[in-house]
Amino acid sequence: MEQNLFAYIGEPDQLMSVRDARLLDGRQDGVRMIQVDNGGALECTLLPGRAMDLYQVRYKGANLNYIAPCGITAPAYYDARGTEWLRGFYVGFLTTCGLQHIGSPAEIAGESRGLHGREANCPAEDVRVTRSRTADSMSLTVEGSMREARIFGENLRLRRTYAFSYGEDAFTLTDTVTNCGFGARPFLLSYHINFGYPLLCEDTKIVLDSLGVEPRDAHAEEEMEHWREIEPPAYPYQECCYFHELAQDAQGQSGYTVYNPVRRIGVRVSWNHADLPYFCQWKMLGKGEYVLGMEPLNAPLDGKKIGEEGCLAPILQPGESKTYSLHFSFIEEL
């Protein structure tokens, strides 16, 4: 084959395709969706209409994540009260939690904070798809911005970029959180990354270099010796959450792999440990609710919340930004 790859094609879609659409019908009506096919074995469905999160990822044609019964819902249906967030939690490959609250609902200084905050229900603006090319390769980025802002309160922007390369079964997610206000502002961020069938089943292996693990509650403590095991679906099933202290490599990176050796599909996720030093494993293996969450965070999930003394949330000064980057690679073998 001659060196100039583009001599063989008439349109970039022959190599990497992008489909930009709006969904119709039911509670998903109006949600913007972008589908990316990397020209290899990777297909990703992004939702600019829902915080630039990932609804679905397929590798070699196989689905990798769990999808909840509610399906995609438009931000207009978001209800901040208590656990009503779950009515719009389609789960997907990635749901972003934050920026002013993560974890269980709470009442702080007279203000009710709903489960996992508002960010996952913020639609993106300034959405862009950009292709770049050299003689023998092509790359593609999808980016957009979410704002979590109100008068007399926070004024935060999250700019998210996904970067893909032709034929490379991997992508990088880069987030930049900026304080657009005039006072210092703490923020919380949890990457709720979720795996499901057929990647997730009894054959699945969890590769995680955990230096220490703590159960979230008494039930999780009873099951703690089984935290690496993926059992068949059961009903009823009580969820288990574990907080891990992760090791980091010589470059300061932490990460994990979820791998199915029978189907020969898997995902590796890595990030800078100093940026996201906390980690939660959510194990929910119920019938019809069969999901494994593997979640890096910038503060403890059950720690003190914003507005409480002792909160460990990072603080942005006026005009200051903080950037996070996670790399996802998709594999056939360990």
UniProtKB/TrEMBL annotation:
<protein>
    <submittedName>
        <fullName>Aldose 1-epimerase family protein</fullName>
    </submittedName>
</protein>
<dbReference type="InterPro" id="IPR027839">
    <property type="entry name" value="DUF4432"/>
</dbReference>
<dbReference type="Pfam" id="PF14486">
    <property type="entry name" value="DUF4432"/>
</dbReference>
<dbReference type="InterPro" id="IPR011013">
    <property type="entry name" value="Gal_mutarotase_sf_dom"/>
</dbReference>
<dbReference type="InterPro" id="IPR014718">
    <property type="entry name" value="GH-type_carb-bd"/>
</dbReference>
